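Working notes for the structural subgroup meeting. M.R. asked for a predicted model of this chain before we commit to crystallization trials. I am recording the input and output together here so anyone reviewing the notebook later can reproduce the run.

Input as submitted:
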Amino acid sequence: QVQLVESGGGLVQPGGSLRLSCAASRSISDSNGMAWYRQAPGKEREFVARVRSSDRTNYSDSVKGRFTISRDNAKFTVYLQMNNLKPEDTAVYYCNCALYGVDYWGKGTLVTVSS
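Returned structure, recorded in token form:
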């Protein structure tokens, strides 16, 4: 089992940047992948980015080139660097860990992009 706690959300102006963190309660080096998802008001949760144990990454088309996912196995932490933020990036961002066939989720952190 693993507990995930997200942080780093907040209010930012369009074009600004934020870095989200996801702290795990145990080592994540053996996870199949760590990912970020988001859910905007009135919409379904959607995939944002994933980093696999091989450090291979993939992104949704809507964030490619603007967001970067990374992991620090020594700190049990995954990051999401978000640049050039747009109002449509406003959402609750959730951390996901795939561990031995089970998906674990954090409670989310709110990102609001507004002037």
